[in-house]
């Protein structure tokens, strides 16, 4: 994989598990140093060479700012944080309005906090990138979890705003929108959807996922962690130097744009 001449340090937020953990490993494999940050202090147990750890809640601007001040020579920032409401989202009035706040606070305001603290530093550096994790749900009015979908739609839009603002400084901003990746977050969607069903009616996680993938994905398969991580490393590389403001769907063709 071709990398920027001075790869520097990559900050991964949401690194404790799932996609963030896979992304952390992929950057380490490619020879980068990684600052792995997460609100879950199990992130402290990541102990590969090249990784340092921070416990950070992205909803707290002061904590994110402290992280940005501590991390010198950062060249790329990857925001893999994400939460769902934990509710079965259709009809939308199943999710009480008060519960929208937490999802928007983590998925959107958390990303804004990261852009505000790291963006000007990257601008001063004159190179590098920010990558947000959005979702196909942010592009199709998904009924699964409306606050989640709305937060991701807003994040896709903010990706474009930030990309325009940072482009004159040589800094790129993109988003990846996964489809179905086998992680705790994905499993929590199944848990919410079967809650309240009698035991004999409940599909297993595998059954639920297989049916959903068959229904929505032309390629008919899960998206794998290593596929997501490979695109993340590519978007941080010099080979992607002309790509900014984009949302790249890795979804087996679930969402197609002309
Ligand atoms: N898994 C999928 O199928 C899927 C599909 C579409 C989009 N995504 C997106 O991909 C990204 C990664 O998702 P995942 O499936 O790996 O989820 P995950 O739940 O496995 O991991 C999310 C991580 O974010 C961390 N986090 C949560 N709140 C935080 C906070 N306030 N501050 C710091 N860290 C916090 C969690 O501790 C966790 O380690 C998310 O943005 C998610 O919305 C995932």
From TrEMBL:
Pfam families: adh_short_C2. Gene3D superfamilies: NAD(P)-binding Rossmann-like Domain (3.40.50.720). Its EC number is 1.1.1.100. GO terms for molecular function: 3-oxoacyl-[acyl-carrier-protein] reductase (NADPH) activity. Keywords: Oxidoreductase. InterPro entries: NAD(P)-bd_dom_sf, Sc_DH/Rdtase_CS, SDR_fam. Belongs to the short-chain dehydrogenases/reductases (SDR) family. This is 3-oxoacyl-[acyl-carrier-protein] reductase FabG.
């Amino acid at each position: 994989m071709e990398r920027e001449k001075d790869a520097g340090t990559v900050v991964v937020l949401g690194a404790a598990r799932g996609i963030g953990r896979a992304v952390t490993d992929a950057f380490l494999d490619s020879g980068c140093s990684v600052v792995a940050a997460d609100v879950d202090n199990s992130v402290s147990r990541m102990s590969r060479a090249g990784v340092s750890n921070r416990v950070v809640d992205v909803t707290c601007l002061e904590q994110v700012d402290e992280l940005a001040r501590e991390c010198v020579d950062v060249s790329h920032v990857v925001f893999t944080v994400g939460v769902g409401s934990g509710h079965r989202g259709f009809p939308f009035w199943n999710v009480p309005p008060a519960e929208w706040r937490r999802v928007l606070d983590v998925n959107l305001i958390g990303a804004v906090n990261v852009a505000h603290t790291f963006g000007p530093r990257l601008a001063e550096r004159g190179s590098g990138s920010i990558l947000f994790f959005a979702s196909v749900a942010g592009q199709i009015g998904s009924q699964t979890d409306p606050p989640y979908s709305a937060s991701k739609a807003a994040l896709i839009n903010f990706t474009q705003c930030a990309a325009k603002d940072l482009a004159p400084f040589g800094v790129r901003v993109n988003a990846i929108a996964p489809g179905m990746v086998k992680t705790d977050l994905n499993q929590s969607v199944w848990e919410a959807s079967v809650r309240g069903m009698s035991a004999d009616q409940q599909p297993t996680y595998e059954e639920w996922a297989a049916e959903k993938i068959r229904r929505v994905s032309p390629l008919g398969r899960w998206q794998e962690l290593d596929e997501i991580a490979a695109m993340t490393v590519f978007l941080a590389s010099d080979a992607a130097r002309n790509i900014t403001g984009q949302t790249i769907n890795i979804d087996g063709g679930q969402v197609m744009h002309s």
